[in-house]
Amino acid sequence: MGFVVGAAATVGVTAMQERGVSGAAEDVAIRAEINHLWQQRPHEEYMRLTLQVHEGRVLVAGALPDATARAEAIQLAWKASGVREVINEVQVVPSVEVPRWVRDQRTVLEIDSRLTFTREIDSINYSVEVVNGVVFLLGIARDRDELDRVLAVIRDTPHVRRIANHVMLREDPRRTRPARA
Question: pTM (2 decimals)?
Answer without folding.
Answer: 0.78
